[in-house]
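Hey all, sorry for the wall of text incoming. These are the two entities for the joint prediction.
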Amino acid sequence: MVTLVGILDLARFQFAMTTIFHFFFVPMSIGLGVVVSIMETMYVIKKDEIYKKMAQFWGKIFLLSFAVGVVTGLIQEFQFGMNWSEYSRYVGDIFGSLLAIEALVAFFAESTFIGLWSFTWDRFKPSIHVLFIWITTIGSAISSLWILAANSFMQNPVGYAIDNHMGRAELKSFGALLSNRQLWVEFPHVVVGTLVTAGFLVAGMSAFKLLKLKKNDKEVLFFRKSINIALIVGLVGVVGALATGDKHAFELQSMQPMKYAAMEGVDKTITSSERKDKAQPWSLISVTNPDTHKVIARIEIPYVLSILGNHSLTGGNTTGTTELEKQLEKQYGKTHGDIKNYYVPENTLFYAFRVMAVGAGGLMMLGLVALWMNRRKTQLIHTQRWFLWILGIATFVPFIINTAGWLVTELGRYPWVVYGLMPISAAVSPNVSVLSLLISNIIYFLTFATLGGIMIWLSRRVLHAGPNAEETEELSPSDPYDNLAKGAEA
Amino acid sequence: MTILEIIWFVLIGVLWAGFFFLEGFDFGIGMQFALNARDQKDREALYQAIGPNWDANEVWLVTAGGATFAAFPAWYASLFSGFYLMLFIVLLSLIYRGVSFEFREHMPTIQGTQLWERLIALTSFLVPFFLGMIFTAMVSGMPIDARGNLSAGFFDYVTPFSLVGGVAVSLMSYVHGLNYTRLRIDGKLRTRALKQLEYLYPILLAGEALFAVLLFFYTDFIQTQTVWTLSILVVIVLTTVIGWLLAIKQKMEKLPFVLSGLTLVEVVVLLFVGLFPRVMVANNPLHTLNIMNTSSSTYTLKVMTIVVVTALPVTLGYQIWSFWVFRKRIVSHKVVE
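and here's what came out:
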């Protein structure tokens, strides 16, 4: 068989595909957990049935996203051993322990309490029942802490030492893993990202529903209230995302300068003291030639990179990618002479970063306008159909932003699987055949396309049926179920 | 070999045993979507019987995998890359099985619902079948190189022994699931479960005997751990016989359920005792992976032990509480309060 692509390419493609697909559903389900928890808490406090209906209705979307999130998460647990066995041997001492703790302290809690939550609406009083959804939500947020601690180790390895006899990295300080400064910029950023995702999802789906509802329909109130709750969560998320994102990028300057330089399109080092305005300009648009790694076109805005990178109107320096390449070659030449270059995919990082920033800014304005138009005394939001369309389409924006964020983080790690420690090429399983990887890639792809399609289809169906749909309606009229525990919740 | 290493070898065995005890009946219930249910009410009752718990039961598998990664990274690496396609099928089955439970109730037509329910039945068979195959192949000696990489051909994975191992684990799970039906569901499902058990118990016993014979030819367990291996084999058969008598003759429910779970646990014990102190058997004894050459550092094992000692009691506490909450028997038209 002629080998067109190697196992390394296929394994990398698989990792990208499976993690991106998984991460559509992770922020969606964690964020929806927060939104549903808030709705049910309002029901407990205000004792108004509409909040119970909200928690149950959005809870259906939450359960769907949770199911797909869980099963695609299984792949993550397996694929390090399946596709990256050399990686697993080299850093399993550190990385494996974090995955095991994630399962033990978080997965058990979320899976047990989501079962309790969805099956006991009529068996516990509301003030107890609401605890189940909170524990589920907190459990899933805690799971992200552990997996991000693992990812942070790959981005910025700390608390380890190399054991030459065993030929691997070994854990020396568990505390250092948990106080990794990469973790404490990455974890908050991901958590607020989940709020953005769920906030604009609930608001967007409500907007689509309002487009279908007549002005005096009794469900209008339900969806307008949903929009308010969701957008407050979403806006808290957006503000948090901008703040934590700024902090994250700032820290990159010292942790991963090549990633930072590529994100900002800096090929030649900028020294602010040598410039007339004593400030670093920021590129709004920049095109890098992927072969020469030189920027061939750009549009600059003065001062902005000093503001972002130096947190001051002027000053600060940014080392360019060309200079960094030379530095890194010198730094790692002796230990990793086989690495050909340290350049990262500049254009992808540059634009993925701008997608995040522009997307978050856009969502913030949209959210504020939507809240204003949705004030109690006015019908404004319901009469401006064009606006509902925009809010509806914005449902998908956080998903694009989330993906962009991971592209920056993971592609910017190139050529390392563990930064400065282990190159990607050394991490792959040597004994897995191209054929095995092709088969698994193709089947995963088809599976994800199917699951993604069904998710969207079922979410639309749930939305179409609305919050007042009886559970029994979902069953064929020729074969009606009697109310089982699940049906009794309606 | 340190105490910590042995503790973690045992703990991974405990996690697998817990997984097969708990998810074993989930698989058995899943297979009954095709093999016992007659109509949609039956299938809904089957779903209700495991609906709140199956997800948490599956976490035992995830934790077993994670614990292997943490405590014996080189074992995890060799096992998961070496049994690539079989684990891929397991993974794919778990994916479709997991979403099927959620998707089935949202389908607009009865045909749509049944499509997912067929998938539940199929995948509930495939997972224990392939896990059984992987475990039996793992203990019977595989082509592993000096680095620990396993590169095997079709007939290394698929042998009479591994096939019998796969069928045996599926059948044990199915019997366990029928016993769970007897325990948790009322009505015709329950009556039919007993009828099926009547002829499945003897088949299971025959299967166990065949497995024991093949174990002698395909592994070195009888030579290396003679007394242990033979005693556990006897215990497995005895557990099955007692379960059979209690279920069929005495019409008991709780005890046969516990016993069918125990047979699965005992199979895990058999494999782990036979392996000890190895973790994966190579054709070339020099390349066999063992506890010593695959384990994590003492520091990591210490940290992990502290985490487990702290977290496991709490985890077990709320899982048991959850089972207690859902202890009521389900009939195929309503929940008995």
